[in-house]
Amino acid sequence: MIATSxxxxxxxxxxxxxxxEVCVAGPAVCSGYGNDPAATAAALRDGFFHTGDLGxxxxxxxxxxxxxxxxxxxxxxxxxxxxxxxxALEDVPGVAEIAAVxxxxxxxxxxxxxxxxxxxxxxxxxxxxxxxxxxRRQAEQRLAPYKRPRRYVFVEEIPRNAMGKIDVPACRRLLxxxxxxx
Length: 182
Fold this sequence. Notes:
There is one protein chain. 24% of the residues lie in helices and 33% in strands. With 182 residues, it is of the alpha+beta class. Strands 1, 2, 3, 4, 5 and 6 form a 6-stranded antiparallel β-sheet that branches.
């Protein structure tokens, strides 16, 4: 099931669903979080376990995961998934890895920022400027204006947490410390 603003949507062959939160139910689904009634109430609603994953079913009935709801970037009321931004820019020559995250913005609430690990690291300011220009060009070609990173920061490696996942708070800090427009 997909939970959307219009209720729950079941996948039907030939009819894709809207994007929404992936919800599951069944005998193998947990019955709650031990000694944490607040977490249980947040996750178990209407007989479904709300996973926190953003996804949709395509016309063939396949489930696609677009990211985590808590990592969704909301730019002036429009939703942006970090994975969509990273996928649009990761094949720019010279990019080893890229992470897109939301950064606070006074008027829009959030805007997209990108933390970029160049192949071989950020070797010189000239290389960084050229790579940023290439990223901006590709963003203009592949992403709607509100989905384009407003700020870039270049690092040796993308920060990761103990589980090996992108450390979103660390990426946000790096972008906050960067000069506006970089």
